[in-house]
Amino acid sequence: MKKVFSRLICMIACLLFYQLTQAQNTPITVEGNIRDAQKLPLVGVTISVKGKNTGTQSDANGHFKLQVKDAANAVLVFTYVGFTSHEEPVKGRAIVSVILEEDRKKLEEIVVVGYGAQKKKDVTGAISSVGTKAIQDVPVTNPQQALQGRAPGVEVINNSSKPGDEPQVRIRGSRSLSAGNDPLYVVDGIPYGGNLSDIGTGVIQSMDILKDASATAIYGSRGANGVVLITTQRGKVGKPVVSYSGSYGYVKQLGQTDMMNAAKYIEMRREANRTGGKYDDANQDASDKKIFNAVEYANIKKGTDVNWQDLMLSPGYQTNHGITVAGGSEKTKYTVGFGYFKDQGVLKLQSYERYNVNIGLDQQIGERVRVGASLLGAYSLRNGETYNGIDNALKMLPIAAPYDDKGNLITFPTGDSQQPNPLLDYVNNNRVELMKRFRIFASLFAEVEITDGLKYRLNVGPDIQNYNYGLFQGKNNTNLLIGGGDATASKGNAQTLAYTVENVVTYNKTFKKHTIGATGLYSVQRQNVDLSTTNVRGIPVETQQYYNLGQALNVTGVTSSLSSWTILSYMGRLNYGFDDRYLLTLTLRADGSSRFAPGKKWGYFPSVAAAWNITSESWAKNNRILDNLKLRASYGRIGNTGINPYATQGLLTRIPYSFSNKGALGFVPGDLRNPNLTWETTTSSDIGVDFGLFNGRITGVIEWYNQKTTDLLMPHLLPYSNGFNQVLENLGSSRNRGWEVGLSGTVIDNPKGFSWKMDVNFFRNRSEILSIGNGRTADVGNGWFVGQPTYVYYDYKKTGIWQVEDAKIAAKYNAKPGEIRLEDINGDSTIDAKDRQILGSPQPKWSAGTTQRFSYKGWELSIVAFARMGSTIKSDFYQNYNTLFGRYNNLNIDYNTPSNPTNDFPRPNVNQERPNNYQSLSYFDGSFFKIRNISLAYAFPDAWVKNMHMADFRVNVGVKQPLILAPYRQTWKGVDPEDVNVIGIDAPATWMLQFGINAKF
């Protein structure tokens, strides 16, 4: 009996051992939640099985799910930027949840610095970063818009709402007068020129802005205006993850230009004729017949009152879709994405459509070789790039009927040949304008680790661009109806071939407390642009549009050109650190540019930067309040090569002339040659403090900078008797200085789920012209004045309107009551050039931006706002649509009359096509505060997402530009004060209501 029992026990034990062995070898699904110390979910944490090639990432709720073999012995590794890596044994568990500890001060975060990356704690230059989350906070049509209000010292101004237009970007102000102030864009390590809208914003991982000389000198001649480093998304270790994002936005004009309705226009025209003594109020009907033509008079009797903006404008839309597949193993990482974007403007003939593809690949070969590639492809179609249909709509009289009794468009609704029906552009293809662009931009690299710490990297960046442009205007197009003539067409093509080849050697080594990093570079960048354009008039069959130019009656112009330039560069950078306390960076770059003449081609750009990590000192390490305190300073020189190729050579221009009473063609110099042109050079100083408080709850930066630019490339005006009116020379100097503050903080962090986080930035920049050469203090023609910003408004200053009681004083100025009163600066009773003065500048006194994020469980609300205060703007609306003589419609203004003695605007006058000194009416306070975007998102619960066989699913709704507070808008009835220099007459400003979804599988 005992033997039987013993055998039974032994059999059961063997059976249990077998089952245990089988259980260990059978894969199980392990899942759990990943949170930080405040119990908030962490999104995008990488979870991998130690020693294996399997892995995944946490979703929007911090949840993950992963199949694990040998669950009893497996170890999960959790890694996340800014947090300490954590290893957790599975021990056969099906649920594994962890809390990751935040790296003290978050100083291990990697920052892209150009030709490499550094830990944030080791950075000595002035660099601001905008990450994926900030980019996704707002709906943007191009990468530059994602920077607006997000980084101190970076100003992004939209100069148009026209689909496909790009904003202006200025980093720490404008310093050049003629050579350009745009920053250099670098995408995946390769300089990127041309239209940045070719890049779909959904593929961008981060943008780092280099601002001081230490950070930008590494790019030498192209870094004078700052550098924006764009990093695209790359594959990560883990199973393939399919991500989809889609949105649709309803777009409507932000507001209509406040023009007069029929009643107000009729009264304004009557008043204009009263002023001219041509209207008899005692016999109103007879007077109306005299001042209105038969068509206008008939429409007045019919009660015609047309809002032409309503007819021209209609709701537009924006739609944006992207799908990405990403994943990889320890050796191979990949990402493939496709995108589609369309922006249909509120003017029917304006739209922008883009197709994108992006491919990223990183491959480890053996232990020491790594290769990779990223490819960005774009094909876009832009309609109505130069179309400005709103101009004729604003001028059209409200008493003009657009259609006749049969419903046909009336060509000249008022009988005035200068006022064609603007709706004609919308029918019968009377106007067709299409720009097709194709671009392939690639970044290829191969990296070899020669020995421990020593690496060689080859970067190759081909860039191929091609555009095809066509413009057709039929004989019933409004432009031709005004000027008269047959149908016209233009056709243009351009091909740009560019490449960058870089050889980079890096060496990084740590010896006890000493850290050394060295970078050496040899690079070549070259660009070729081949351009041709043909213009014709007299298209025999208008359906041919611009596709058969050879059939036209006349060729009005043929041009073609080839332009190329090359930059050869050498660069060396040395980084030294001692005990994580003292940091030093030395940089020297030499650039040789083909744009300059022999003997002037090379420029040398050195910089030095030092930093002190105060909190790494032994006496500061146990500080419970101060997590991070770093003091840094930099000094260096950077250059600007922003002149056209061949500018130093002098170009020839063909001219016709008479030779022996016969026509002949000859050539004369078109530009005066100047072989002495050299680089604009900016010398920059920067002092900054980085800090963190309360275990990272508050982080920030304070910067002060001073930049002086010398050898400004600018035109020197010459007497016309020389045969040339100007020559390009290195003449003047300018200065930019200012300070910046950036703060990030967690205001509320409730363990129950509610949190409030914010980013705030504030900056103030002052640009000033120091000299303009030859001892001059002013160049009035160009609007340059020593001691003033690089762009100012120089004009007469309106002080009011001459009133009836001031008639005698007005007479001294040859003015009458009801006309504009100007400031007489010198009191000589004469308004002349001496009374012009600087009225202001587009440069604001200060700018600021903020992002507020509120979250509660699955809900998240974000608000993005920014402000510009103390600037001056010039509005073309108040100049072009304020004629007050009755031929065209007018802004709905408070004009002066004997019974309405206002000081705002002058009295209408039929004898003046425009009021005297009308340009003085155009200047306004440009200050504004904008809520740029409000977005509300909801992430669905894990259980719901799991039932749908998805990894993540969220929906969002947002409003773009819901609020603008500005004197120009609230006081003066303008629409949007945001513009580069002049509020132009173009596509109207818009707002958008957008709905979107994000899903991962």
From TrEMBL:
Recorded hits in SUPFAM superfamilies, A to Z, give: Carboxypeptidase regulatory domain-like (SSF49464), Porins (SSF56935)
Topology class, membrane: Multi-pass membrane protein
Q: Say if the entry is tagged with keyword rRNA processing.
A: no
Domain of life, per the record?
Bacteria
Q: Where in the cell is it found?
A: Cell outer membrane
Q: Print the keywords alphabetically.
A: Cell outer membrane, Membrane, Signal, Transmembrane, Transmembrane beta strand, Transport
Q: Does the keyword Iron-sulfur apply?
A: no
Signal peptide range equals: 1-23
Residue ranges of the TonB-dependent receptor plug domain? 119-227
Q: Which GO terms describe its cellular component?
A: cell outer membrane
Q: What is its main location?
A: membrane
Family listed:
Belongs to the TonB-dependent receptor family.
**What protein name does the entry list?**
TonB-linked outer membrane protein, SusC/RagA family
Taxonomic lineage: Bacteria, Pseudomonadati, Bacteroidota, Chitinophagia, Chitinophagales
